[in-house]
Design goal:
Largest sheet of chain B: 7 strands, mixed
Radius of gyration of chain B: 28 Å
Largest sheet of chain A: 5 strands, mixed
Number of strands of chain B: 31
Structural class of chain B: alpha+beta
Shape of chain A: globular
Largest interface: A-B, 58 and 60 residues
Distance between the termini of chain B: 77 Å
Strand order of the largest sheet of chain A: 2-1-5-3-4
Strand content of chain B: 25-35%
Number of helices of chain B: 23
Shape of chain B: globular
Helix content of chain A: 25-40%
Oligomer: heterodimer
Structural class of chain A: alpha+beta
Distance between the termini of chain A: 53 Å
Number of strands of chain A: 5
Chain lengths: 158, 792
C-alpha cells in the first residue's frame, strides 16, 4: 500500500510520518508513536477507552484514520501530567477518590473530562453524567468518577 | 495494633494508571515481534472438510499459518481444569455426581462446536497483514444439526456436541437435606416456578491478549497474558506442549479487568507460546471485541424449576429444585458454578428441607465459565423471587416473609446441613442477617416509603421497592502464597501468588505487611502476577485474594518480624523479648538509642562467617507462608432497590439503591466500597440490559456493543452503603471476601422492585434482563388476564 505523508502535532511535538491510508489513528498513536496510554477497548466507537483530543475536542481514535489527523493538534493522556512529574488536578482527583480500579478505561475518561472541564468549570452531577456517558467503565460503577470530577472542578475554581 | 489495616489508604497503583504509563499486554512490544490473528468458526456445528491456506500463505508479510492438522500430536487438547474440578471424597459420596470428560482442540481439527472456535492461526508482520491473510483462508464445512436449546439438547437423538459421549449431559448431581418431598405434602401451599438467568459476557474493558517470547539459550518461554491465573497457565502450557514448568514463566502485567472469564486457560494462551517457540521470535495476539463476544467464555445461563412448600403464615418448609446449566460446547470448570448454586440457594434463610438436582448440559455455544458471583446471582434471583412470590400469594409484605424465615444472630454459627464444595460442613461462621435487614430498611425509610407509595400510585406514579439478601462463601482455597523478604538495602519486598485485575493488591497487602513490620505501606514493595517469584500460587477469583493472600502475607510478615528480632538480639547481645521495632529499626525497649536498622540486620543475616542468624535457622531475611483456609468464610448483604416503571414503554428507572454489607475485617474501606459499587453496576447491567443471544443456528446476535448493552453513567446510581463488620473466625485477621458480592443481588432486588411497582397488576419476573420490550409484554399479558371474563 502506498504511504501518505502526514504532519501533525502530538502532545506539543511536531510529527511527520508516512502512513498507510488504512491505518487507524489509535494504532498510529500506539504503534508508531509508542504512546500506549491510549487504550483500545472495542474498536467500534462505543467504549471510549481510546478517546484523545483532536484540536481540543474529545475524539475516538479508533474511529479516525491517521491520515485524517493530518494538520491537526492531537493530545493523548501522556500530555496531562505536569512537567515536574506531578499529576494534573483531574488525575489527582481520580486517585484521591478511587475513581479507577483496573485503570484500562481511565485514559479515555481523563481525555473526555479534561476537555469538558475546560468548557464547563463548574458542572452539575447531571452534566458530568452526560459527559461521561460515552465512556464505559466495567469496574467502578461510575460514582467515584463523578466525585473525582467534582473535586477537580472545585480545585481549579479555588 | 493495626495501624494501617482499616484505613482508606490511597492506591499505589494509581500513578502509573492515570498517567498512561501502566503496562497492559497490548502495550508490550519487542524487537522482531510478529502478530497473530485467529481464524474462527463461522458455524456452530460443522465438520471441517478442508482448509485452503494457499492464497493467504502467498501474501507478503505472512510468516506462518497453522491449522488443527499442523498441531495434531504436538499440542494436547484443553480439558477441564483439575484445580477447579477435583472434588473431595466426602462430597462425591454426598452428592453422587456423574462427570464426563470433555475437551476442545486448541485449533479445531475435525469439527467445530461453536461460532468463534479457533480453527487456524496466521502470524504476520503486523495485525493488518495477518487479518488480510485470515480473510483469504477458505474453510470448507459440512454443516451438522445445531442445538442451542438445552432442553432440546437433552432429547433423545439430539446431535452430540462432544462425540465421544453418550449424551449431552456432561455432569449431574443431587444434594439434599431434610425431606423436601415430604414437606411438599405437609405444606398449606405449593408454589411452582421456572426461573431463568440468561447467558451474559463479562466484558472487561481490556480484551484478552497474549505475548510470548522464547529464549533459546535457556530454553525458556516467557508468556505475558491478561489473566487472573498465571500459575494455572504455566501448568497448562507445560501440560499441553509437553514441557516442564521450569521452562515457562508467566507474567500477568497490568490487567484491565477480569471478572472470572479471564480465569482458566484459553486456546490462545497455549497457541501463542507454541508459535513463539516454533518461530523462535516474540509473538503477540490481542483479542478484538468481536472475538471477545464470540470466543471469550460466557457465563450464567441457568434454568431452575422450583417447587416450594410454604404455610399460610409465610414459613417456607422446603424447596425442591431441578436446574440446568447450559455449559456451551465444553465444561472447563466442573461443578464450580453448579455446586455454588446448589449450596447457596437458601442464603440467609432457614429452610430445613432442601433437595436440588442439577444437570450440566452441552450445546453449540461458547463454553460457559464462572463470572463474578459464579452461581450465586442465579440462585439468589431464584430464592428472592420465591420470597416475593410467597409474600404476594399470601398478601403479606415481603419483609414479613423474610423475617419469618431468616437465620437469627443467636443461631450462629449456623449449619445448613449440607457440604461446601471443599468438603467442609456448610456452617456460616458469623453475621447478623436480621440486623442487616433492619439497618437496610432504616436506610431507605421503608415504612415511610410504603406510605408514600400509596399516594404516588394513586397519582399514577408506579414506584416500587425490592429487597434481596445473600450469604456468600468467599475466600475459597486451596491456598495462597506470600514470600516476604528484607533485601540488602533494608527494603521490604513481598511477593504474592494472587495477581490483581484492579483490586488494589499493591496497596492492601502493603497495609497488612506494614502493620506487622512496623513500617508504612510506602516502605513496602509488593510484587504480584509473576510465576518467577514463587513456587506456588493460586490466583484472583471467587472473592478470595484478601482472605487468602491477605492471611498469607500477614502470617509471613509476622514470622519475618520474629526472625528480624532474633537476628537483632544477636547483634545487640540482648534477648529478643527485650526488643521493640519501629520505623525500620529494632531497639532495646529500655534503651531506645541502642538500635539496629533493617539494613544492618539484613547485612548481619547474610550467609558467611559473620552471620548473626542463630544456628538451625536459614540465613537471610525471608519467609514464605502458604495460607490454607479451613473452608470458606461467609460474607452477607442486604440490597434494596427503588424503581419507577413507565407502564407505557416498559422502561425501568432506578431511583435508588442501598446496601448493607458484611465483609468481615475491612482492610481498606475505600477499596471495599469501590468493589461494592462496581459489582452492583455489573449486577444492574445483568438485571436490566445484558444478554448474550444466539439464533437457532447458533449464530451470535449480540456481537457488538450496539447489540449487547452495558450500563453507562446514566444508568448507575451512587449506591448508599452501610457496613457490618462480623469478623470471620476462619483466618487471623477476620477477613471475608468482597469482590463478587455487589454483583449477586441486583437482579433479584430490581425484579422484586419492578413487580412491586406494578402491583396490584400480577406480573412475574422470572427471567432477565428486564428489558423494556419484555416488561411491556408482561404488562400487556397481565392486563389481559386482569380483564379476562371467566366463563363457566
Amino acid at each position: 500500500m502506498e504511504g501518505i505523508k502526514i504532519h501533525l502535532k502530538v502532545n506539543g511535538q511536531d510529527i511527520s510520518r508516512e502512513v498507510d491510508p488504512r491505518l487507524l489513528l489509535s494504532d498510529f498513536i500506539r504503534e508508531n508513536l509508542l504512546l500506549t496510554g491510549t487504550h483500545i477497548g472495542c474498536e467500534h466507537g462505543v467504549c471510549g477507552a481510546c478517546t484523545i483530543q483532536v484540536n481540543g475536542d474529545p475524539v475516538r481514535s479508533c474511529l479516525m484514520l491517521a491520515v485524517q489527523a493530518d494538520g491537526c493538534e492531537v493530545k493523548t493522556v501522556e500530555s496531562l501530567i505536569q512537567e515536574n512529574g506531578e499529576l494534573s488536578h483531574l488525575q489527582q482527583a481520580f486517585s484521591d477518590n478511587h475513581a479507577l480500579q483496573c485503570g484500562f478505561c481511565t485514559p479515555g475518561f481523563l481525555m473526555t473530562l479534561s476537555s469538558f472541564l475546560e468548557e464547563n468549570s463548574n458542572p452539575s452531577e447531571e452534566e458530568i453524567r452526560k459527559c461521561i456517558s460515552g465512556n464505559l467503565c466495567r469496574c467502578t460503577g461510575y460514582s467515584n468518577i463523578i466525585k473525582a470530577v467534582k473535586q477537580a472542578a472545585q480545585t481549579v475554581s479555588n | 495494633m493495626t495501624k494501617y489495616v482499616g484505613q482508606s489508604i490511597k492506591r499505589k497503583e494509581d500513578y502509573r494508571l492515570v498517567t498512561g504509563t501502566g503496562q497492559f499486554v497490548g502495550d508490550i512490544r519487542m524487537a522482531n515481534m510478529v502478530e497473530a490473528v485467529f481464524v474462527r468458526s463461522t458455524h456452530a456445528h460443522a465438520t471441517i472438510i478442508g482448509i485452503d491456506i494457499s492464497e493467504a500463505q502467498a501474501l507478503e508479510g505472512v510468516h506462518a499459518i497453522l491449522t488443527g492438522k499442523d498441531i495434531d500430536g504436538k499440542i494436547k487438547p484443553l480439558v477441564q481444569f483439575e484445580s477447579h474440578c477435583a472434588l473431595p471424597p466426602n462430597l462425591v459420596e454426598a452428592i453422587n455426581p456423574t462427570i464426563h470428560f470433555c475437551y476442545e482442540d486448541v485449533l479445531a481439527k475435525n469439527k467445530v462446536m461453536y461460532v468463534g472456535q479457533p480453527i487456524a492461526v496466521v502470524v504476520a508482520e503486523n495485525r493488518y497483514v495477518a487479518e488480510d491473510a485470515a480473510d483469504l483462508i477458505k474453510v470448507k464445512y459440512e454443516t451438522l444439526p445445531v442445538v442451542v436449546d438445552p432442553f432440546k439438547s437433552l432429547e433423545k437423538g439430539a446431535p452430540l456436541i462432544q462425540e465421544h459421549l453418550q449424551s449431552n449431559i456432561q455432569s449431574n448431581f443431587h444434594v439434599t437435606t431434610g425431606n423436601a418431598v415430604q414437606s411438599l405434602k405437609d405444606a398449606n401451599h405449593i408454589l411452582k416456578a421456572r426461573i431463568k438467568t440468561p447467558r451474559v459476557s463479562s466484558n472487561p474493558l481490556e480484551t484478552r491478549g497474549v505475548v510470548s517470547t522464547y529464549e533459546n539459550r535457556t530454553n525458556q518461554l516467557h508468556v505475558y497474558s491478561s489473566t487472573q491465573l498465571p500459575f494455572e497457565i504455566r501448568t497448562y502450557i507445560a501440560r499441553s506442549l509437553d514441557l516442564v514448568e521450569q521452562q515457562i514463566r508467566v507474567t500477568a502485567p497490568d490487567v484491565g479487568g477480569g471478572f472470572g472469564p479471564k480465569g482458566g486457560v484459553h486456546p490462545e494462551e497455549i497457541m501463542v507460546p507454541y508459535l513463539s517457540k516454533l518461530m523462535n521470535r516474540p509473538v503477540k495476539w490481542i483479542e478484538d471485541r468481536l472475538e471477545h463476544m464470540t470466543s471469550a467464555r460466557h457465563s450464567r445461563d441457568q434454568i431452575h424449576d422450583v417447587e416450594v412448600a410454604y404455610n399460610r403464615d409465610g414459613t417456607i418448609l422446603g424447596i425442591k429444585d431441578h436446574f440446568i446449566i447450559d455449559s456451551g460446547a465444553v465444561n472447563y470448570f466442573g461443578l464450580t458454578c453448579a455446586y455454588n448454586s446448589a449450596y447457596h440457594l437458601r442464603g440467609a434463610y432457614k429452610i430445613p428441607n432442601y433437595d436440588s438436582t442439577c444437570q450440566i448440559v452441552l450445546t453449540n455455544k461458547t463454553p460457559n465459565v464462572p463470572f463474578r458471583g459464579a452461581g450465586r446471582p442465579e440462585v439468589v434471583f431464584v430464592m428472592d423471587r420465591i420470597i416475593d412470590m410467597v409474600a404476594r400469594k399470601l398478601k403479606m409484605d415481603p419483609v414479613e416473609v423474610m423475617r419469618k424465615n431468616m437465620i437469627q444472630a443467636e443461631d450462629m454459627p449456623y449449619d445448613q446441613g449440607i457440604l461446601v464444595k471443599d468438603g467442609a460442613q456448610l456452617i456460616y461462621d458469623s453475621g447478623d442477617y436480621p440486623a442487616a435487614l433492619d439497618q437496610g430498611l432504616k436506610m431507605v425509610d421503608y415504612e415511610g416509603f410504603r406510605e408514600q407509595q400509596k399516594k404516588w400510585k394513586k397519582q399514577g406514579k408506579l414506584v416500587g421497592v425490592g429487597i434481596s439478601t445473600y450469604v456468600e462463601g468467599t475466600g475459597a482455597g486451596p491456598f495462597e502464597s506470600a514470600y516476604v523478604t528484607i533485601d540488602g538495602s533494608g527494603q521490604v519486598v513481598a511477593y504474592l501468588g494472587a495477581s490483581p485485575q484492579g483490586q488494589g493488591h499493591e496497596t492492601v497487602f502493603s497495609q497488612i505487611c506494614a502493620d506487622e513490620l512496623m513500617l508504612s505501606p510506602n516502605e513496602i514493595t509488593i510484587r504480584v502476577g509473576d510465576t518467577a517469584n514463587l513456587a506456588f500460587g493460586a490466583g484472583t477469583y471467587a472473592s478470595r485474594s484478601a482472605v487468602n493472600a491477605g492471611s498469607a502475607i500477614q502470617i509471613a510478615s509476622a514470622k519475618l518480624r520474629e526472625k528480624v528480632l532474633v537476628v537483632a538480639a544477636a547483634m545487640l547481645e540482648v534477648k529478643s523479648s527485650d526488643l521493640q521495632m519501629e520505623n525500620g529499626k529494632a531497639f532495646v525497649k529500655t534503651q531506645p538509642e541502642k538500635c539496629v536498622t533493617y539494613k544492618e540486620i539484613a547485612e548481619a543475616a547474610r550467609p558467611g562467617n559473620r552471620c548473626k542468624v542463630p544456628a538451625g535457622m536459614e540465613p537471610g531475611l525471608q519467609v514464605t507462608h502458604y495460607f490454607v483456609p479451613p473452608t470458606v468464610t461467609f460474607s452477607s448483604s442486604v440490597h434494596i432497590a427503588m424503581v419507577e416503571v413507565d407502564k407505557k414503554t416498559g422502561f425501568v428507572e432506578l431511583k435508588g439503591y442501598s446496601v448493607v454489607h458484611d465483609a468481615g475485617k475491612v482492610i481498606n474501606p475505600m477499596i471495599v466500597d469501590g468493589q461494592v459499587q462496581g459489582g452492583i453496576a455489573q449486577g444492574i447491567g445483568a438485571a436490566l440490559y445484558e444478554e448474550i443471544v444466539y439464533d437457532e443456528k447458533g449464530q451470535l446476535l449480540t456481537g457488538s456493543y450496539m447489540d449487547y448493552l452495558l450500563p453507562t453513567s446514566m444508568e448507575i446510581p451512587t449506591v448508599e452503603k452501610s457496613h457490618q463488620e462480623f469478623l470471620s473466625t476462619r483466618n487471623p485477621l477476620g477477613i471475608k471476601g468482597v469482590g463478587e458480592g455487589g454483583a449477586i443481588s441486583p437482579p433479584a432486588a430490581i425484579a422484586n422492585a419492578v413487580v412491586d411497582a406494578l402491583d396490584p397488576l400480577e406480573i412475574m419476573i422470572n427471567l432477565l434482563p428486564i428489558s423494556p420490550s419484555k416488561l411491556r409484554n408482561w404488562i400487556k399479558e397481565a392486563e389481559r388476564k386482569q380483564y379476562k371474563i371467566e366463563v363457566g
